[in-house]
Design a protein that fits this description.
This protein is of the alpha+beta class. It is built from five helices and twelve strands. The radius of gyration is 17 Å and the shape is globular. The N and C termini lie close together (6 Å). It binds one DNA strand through loops.
DNA sequence: ATGGTCGATTATCGA
């Protein structure tokens, strides 16, 4: 089974790219972030025409997450238990959606950006991650053999090599010690980054800012991760960051990340 | 080629 995660930066602007990419890359399940539309606006027809089922959670032009699957889509859950919510005027955020596809519990996660270290949104980000850790740790406490994948845009660069120049990010979000500790806590809870062993750095990224020629200059960030429970991590046989998909007119600012799972 | 873009919603905002 091939599972992928991709921050598409508007599904309506990207639907043709997403549909052709799913078909071309033979992907069974895709976790999508930043759909930027309400459920009634989601362009699911081109995906259904290719044999995919779709579950989406979006209430406005902000955020929005989806799971697209051609190997079943069951027990859809909006938000993870304990997920904190930002107050007005961003109450319409939509950052987590879980579904069981082909026997795997997959979560599409769009971790809060944090904005700046001084912004209340930064504390909200840390709170969000803390509660995700508690919830995800609980799943493994109940069933150590659970097959769970936490896939999405984590808005954290866990290592110095995950940004092109640490000097640029001094006093910025995404690389701060608390954010990196929050990411490490997910690992300590039992979830492994299954992509990095197949895509070692430095210089390996999943996101490049649209501005300042960041992509052609190869100045990016590794922000998108597929974190797998132990039972699932042991079945991973390969992974890839599809940098090719970041190229050309009409690309998202994030590249898709693919994980190959045995069985 | 002198190099700050996208997308959604409407001149800003968030990323």
């Amino acid at each position: 089974m091939r599972v992928a995660t991709w921050n598409v930066n508007s599904i309506r602007a990207r639907i043709d790219r997403v549909a052709s990419w799913l078909e071309r890359r033979d992907v069974d399940v895709l976790a999508v972030q930043e759909t930027k539309c309400r459920d009634d606006q989601f362009p699911d027809e081109p995906l259904r025409a290719l044999g995919y089922d779709v579950a989406h959670h979006g209430l406005s032009a902000w955020s929005g997450v989806a799971v697209v699957s051609r190997v079943g889509l069951e027990d859809v859950e909006v938000g993870f238990p304990g997920q904190p919510h930002w107050g007005e005027p961003l109450a319409a955020e939509a950052r987590a959606l879980g579904a069981t596809c082909g026997g795997v519990r997959i979560w599409s996660l769009y971790v809060p950006n944090g904005r700046t270290l001084a912004d209340p949104h930064y504390l909200y980000k840390l709170d969000w991650l803390s509660r995700l850790r508690d919830t995800a740790a609980g799943w493994l406490a109940v069933d150590a053999a659970a097959t769970v994948i936490l896939a999405g845009d984590w808005n954290i660069a866990p290592l110095d090599e995950d940004v092109w120049d640490m000097r640029v990010f001094a006093h910025s979000t995404h690389v701060s010690a608390p954010e990196r500790a929050a990411f490490e806590a997910i690992i300590e809870a039992g979830y492994a980054d299954v992509v990095r062993p197949y895509t070692p750095g430095p210089g390996t990224y999943t996101y490049w800012d649209y501005t300042r020629l960041r992509f052609p200059r190869r100045e990016g960030m590794r922000l998108d991760f597929a974190m797998c429970s132990p039972a699932l991590a042991s079945r991973v046989t390969g992974a890839e960051i599809d940098r090719q998909e970041r190229k050309g007119k009409g690309a998202s600012d994030h590249a898709p990340v693919i994980v190959e799972i045995d069985g």
